[in-house]
Design a protein that fits this description.
Order of helices and strands: HHHHHHHHHHHHHHH
Distance between the termini: 50 Å
Strand content: under 5%
Largest sheet: none
Number of strands: 0
Length: 384
């Protein structure tokens, strides 16, 4: 029970303070789970991030679920997910209930929260480069992947870049001695993993087939959001256009939901809570949230047992050296676009970046203090 309470406290803290989108979330996770609590080392964390980059759904939420599972089993994964997700779910349901669909979310404090993502991602990059791209070869891989990611800003491009980085690592580091690696200790094995895969594909195939035989709005919500959560790659910014095609709500509602989702901490996929509430009240919000995140649970459970076996093989380790350097490069590209380009519009914005990154990197302020200060500075500059 003590372990679950610890997971709940840590994940809820992250759920209340993790502003800035998926790239920033990975920075918050690294700060809390790797540096502060030392639940896992830098290499294992990077491996988990690399795996989740290849899965559909919200990568940051999947990373949190995986860490929760490794720390406290399946229940730990659920607790980790709830802690990280529930704060934004509750806030977005409240937004949907209290604000009009054309409400404006353009405010100084929101701008401050966008700006602090620049600081968080930059801080994560500094640390990850030291451990995952410590030599000239891996720095070159990271820079190359960053350039290619900016030139080919598509999900297919990102997949291809990581695969190429893995192949390069496999070839380039073949002569390295085999590193001793730590097994991922899981409370379940391949049978549970296979069941998760079967359930994932079973729901994906049969929910749409059975939809013509039911006229329930709740069945339709579950089918729609499960399918979106199963098929969308690239995180919360990519899920919006797919939901616009699938859900029958006005464009104003979508824009309001998108603005609200960016204004709250936690995963952007919780826009499903806002839209589900707009469609069918609180039951709709709960169903939409469950449906859009369920594929992530099943995929993480499905991949972890196999991953814990194959990641210790020498060839896989060599490929992972390249892939992890590639992840650093992709995060570097994300630091520029969309994080920097969407947040830093004026001189005052860059001033806030300089202040917050100095306090975080040099003076070692806790991230949540930096977030609060950035929001306050954004508000102050907005009214000046």
């Amino acid at each position: 029970m003590k372990k679950y309470i610890e997971i709940a406290k840590t994940s809820t803290k992250l759920g209340l303070t993790s502003f800035g989108g998926p790239a920033a979330h990975l920075g918050y996770f690294r700060e809390e789970y790797v540096l502060k609590r030392k639940w896992l080392d830098e290499k294992l964390y990077a491996d988990i991030v690399a795996v989740c980059q290849f899965l559909p759904g919200p990568a940051s939420s999947q990373v949190g679920i995986a860490i929760g599972i490794m720390r406290g089993g399946l229940i730990g994964g659920i607790v980790s997910f709830l802690g990280f997700t529930l704060p934004s779910v509750l806030l977005l349901v409240l937004f949907s209930a209290l604000l009009s669909s054309t409400g404006s979310f353009d405010s100084g404090w929101l701008q401050g929260l966008k700006i602090v993502a620049v600081t968080i991602v930059a801080h994560a990059l500094i640390g990850m480069q030291k451990s995952l791209a410590p030599d000239r070869i891996r720095i070159s891989i990271a820079i190359s992947c960053a350039i290619l990611t900016l030139l080919i800003p598509t999900i297919v491009g990102q997949f291809s870049i990581l695969i190429g980085a893995g192949l390069f690592g496999y070839i380039c580091f073949r002569s390295d001695s085999n590193e001793t690696d730590t097994n991922i200790v899981l409370p379940f094995g391949k049978r549970t993993s296979i069941f998760a895969w079967l359930l994932f594909f079973g729901l994906l195939i049969f929910l749409p087939l059975l939809k013509p035989f039911t006229h329930s709005v709740y069945y339709s919500i579950f089918d729609t959001y499960y399918r979106v959560g199963s098929l969308v790659f690239g995180g919360g910014h990519v899920v919006l256009p797919m939901l616009q095609r699938e859900v029958e709500l006005s464009p104003d509602v979508f824009l309001a939901g998108y603005g609200a989702a960016q204004a709250v901490p936690g995963p952007l996929f919780t826009i499903a809570s806002f839209l589900g509430h707009a469609t069918a009240g609180i039951p709709g919000a709960l169903l939409a949230t469950l449906a859009i995140f369920l594929p992530s649970f099943l995929l993480v459970i499905g991949i972890l047992p196999f991953w814990s076996i194959i990641r210790n093989k020498k060839g896989i380790q060599n490929a992972l050296k390249g892939i992890n350097a590639g992840v650093v490069g992709i995060l570097l590209a994300a630091l520029y676009n969309p994080v920097f380009t969407s947040a830093v519009q004026e001189t005052s914005d860059f001033i806030i970046v300089l202040i917050t990154i100095t306090l975080l990197v040099i003076y070692k302020w806790a991230p949540y203090k930096v977030v609060i200060l950035s929001a306050f500075l954004g508000f102050v500059f907005h009214i000046i």
